[in-house]
Amino acid sequence: MIYKNISLKKFNTFGLDCMADCMIRIRNEKEAISLFRGEISWKKPFLIIGGGSNILFTSDFKGTILYPEIGGIKVEVKDQEYVIISAGAGVNWDKLVEWTVNKGYGGLENLSLIPGLVGATPVQNIGAYGVEVKDTIEKVIAVSIDDGAITEFSKNDCRFGYRNSTFKSENKGKYLVIRVYFKLTISPLLNLNYGSLKEEVTKLGSVTLKNARQAVINIRRSKLPDPEIIGNAGSFFKNPVVSSSAAESLNNRYPQMPSYKDQSGGTKLAAGWLIDQCGWKGKRVGDAGVHDKQALVLVNYGKATGKEIYNLSEKIIKSVQEKFGIDLEREVEVVGTI
Ligand code: EPU
Predict the structure, then answer these.
(1) What is the 270 CA–ligand 1 centroid distance (Å)?
(2) Percent of residues, the chain, with pLDDT higher than 90
């Protein structure tokens, strides 16, 4: 399914009205294989997009957008403790989470309501409320863009890190994810340690899998703008990881600054807090703005261009650098000229 001169407005959650020369919708594994074996001619460069929930287009895309629509959720193996399920890259992420929770399978509930499609979740190792998708991923099946070969990536091969994986580093642009396998628990052990999650679950009544999902949904809805209403891509920046000594000296100056021990041995700071402290929360420059309930989220109030949102992000980076000496890194992928 090849489309020419297509508007990307519906394909990015910022709602930016950019154009792509071409878009190819990939409906199944066979189509992916024949595309990359060269059986169909198509124009490079290319960009794979899922839900378009982590992309900032700063100009029209002069190439081909590859859009996986591979569906299907399957139970692969089940015993008394675990179930392995698989989902096609084109399955809506939250629909998958909802399906697992309805079946009583535990592991994905804290990742409720994250926008996007299944195929993108291992690429950027999505995470929220103390859980990362890597915690449940068993393996990832991908197609090599070079030659159409089907390749299996074990959890180890994926080289997961904070909002990172092999698909964003050494294997960037080399594979299209087609199916993801998750190992879930039959008797879920809930992880309610993050922030106000436990409190929110208690408000809902008993501590159940369904209530854990509902609590996450309630918290997200209270803090994060719905992209259907206000364009955004969730967290625009990553939470920076600094050395423990750098964190300690900042903590001496700002005792109320949130900080968390990171697996790497360093300390993770809350970018949202740093940006908030610089006075950006709720600020607006034209139609580009900083969300009024979570400073880590940049928004498009309607007619902002990708360049305007990018320029706002540059100003934020500069002021956080001036006030705290910390370099923020963007979490969203910037695509286009700047
Ligand atoms: N904070 C402020 N002001 C703000 C925003 C945050 O003071 O404007 C403070 C909060 O009070 C809290 C701390 O900063 O003490 C952390 O805030 P929050 O719990 O909202 O989480 P976050 O670190 O800002 C991360 C993820 C989110 C994820 C939440 C919940 C990243 C880049 N972001 O945000 O992920 O939903 O934790 O787990 O790691 C995303 O990646 O798109 C995303 C939304």
Answers:
(1) 6
(2) 97
pTM: 0.96
Judge contact between 88 and 178, C-beta under 8 A. Answer: yes
Best substitution site from 296, 298, 326, 330 to test ligand 1's pocket, by max atoms within 8 Å of Cβ? 296
Pairing of strands 150-154, 137-144: antiparallel
Q: In what order do the strands lie in the sheet with 267-269?
A: 241-242, 267-269, 259-261
Other CB atoms within 10 Å distance of the CB of residue 261: 11
Which protein residue has the closest C-alpha to ligand 1 atom 36?
128
Supply angle C-alpha 191, 193, 198, rounded to 5: 90
Please state whether the peptide bond connecting residue 45 to the residue before it is cis, i.e. omega within 30 degrees of 0: yes
Which residues in the chain show pLDDT less than 70? none
What tens digit of pLDDT does each residue of 35-89 get?
999 998 999 999 999 999 999 999 999 999 999 999 999 999 999 999 999 999 9
Domains parsed from the chain with CATH numbers = 2-68 (3.30.43.10), 73-185 (3.30.465.10), 231-335 (3.90.78.10)
Is 235 known to be catalytic? Answer: yes
Instruction: Please give the span between the terminal C-alpha atoms of the chain, in angstroms, as a whole number.
Output: 31
Q: Nearest 5°: CA angle at 246, between 241 and 252? A: 120
